[in-house]
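User: What would this chain look like folded?
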Amino acid sequence: MGKYRSGTDKKKILRIAQIAPLYESLPPKLYGGTERIVHYLTEELVREGHDVTLFASGDSITHARLIACVNEGLRLKQDCIDPLAYHIIQMQKLSAYVNEFDVLHFHTDYLHFPYSNTLKIPSVTTLHGRLDIPELQDIYNTFPYQNLISISENQRLPLPQGNFVKTVYHGLPGNLHHLGEGTGEYLAFLGRISPEKGVERAIKIALETNTKLKIAAKIDKADFAYYEEKVKFMLDHPLIEYVGEINDQQKTEFLAQAKALLFPIDWPEPFGLVMIEAMACGTPVIAFNRGSVPEVMENNVTGFIVNSVEEAIHAVSGLKYLSRIEIRRAFERRFTATRMAEDYIDVYRILVNSKFPDVHRGRTSILDV
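Assistant: Here's the prediction, encoded as structure tokens.
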């Protein structure tokens, strides 16, 4: 088991394995929401004195012990044809070290379930994606004892049989972004160009309000045909500027100077990291009422929750009534990496202090012990 801190702080130092997806480095060089969150969590756990090992790509930068499972993030690895192969290697590497840990924290979706289901070491899995996919019903019926973390209450609704032990909202380092003045006179769109992210809606809102729109977004191979057919021709308008993918340093300036972030989603967004990135800059968000939005947003405080393009157009005129200072304060109250890490540590301690259950006796969760 873990060591104890000296002095008056007798809380046990936990030996934690963070198992990250391998598609991006930690932190990502460009886009990569899940990897970004795993990075912030890992660094905060180290800062709080825990013994953390990170299983990730070899080009990751971390204060934790790094065990590389591939030399670089797979999305930028030009010669990678089968990314699943490296995730299987990752599980094998974890097997070589598994007895060194008090708790395993997976961020690799359900890939590890056949492996972690046999372990005598507590584990928990944060689900970072959408759960309204039909095949997932069979997966979670087959593995009913996996301890799961949701990133919003809304995310877990399609999977009522899932063994969810807690919802932990994402968090960012408090000093990652700074409060901006919003003097750029443009609306911002940040994320991916894909049908569910609503870039067409964002363009319409900008044109109808005669406001410049800057689009900082990646285009996945799977969405390239959509971009070519539905979006590309819309970028020729003088009010619309396509910036491309941007990194964290560029993101701060991009969001801090924007009048508002447009988040016109058309899918059940599990969390929406870009919303709290904007809040960290004091930038209001105009977000469609889908998925996690009502949980993350404080309507009329951090921005406006809308139900249509027409409502979003009307909301643009109300931005002047919002306080950027209050938006930043809302971020500091709810969405820091410190708060996120503390929530996860609470789960880890319960898992570590509980006797590992015999799954054949029908117990639904380690947390029920």
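Residues 4-10, 356-369 have pLDDT under 50 and may be disordered. If you want, I can go into more detail on any region.
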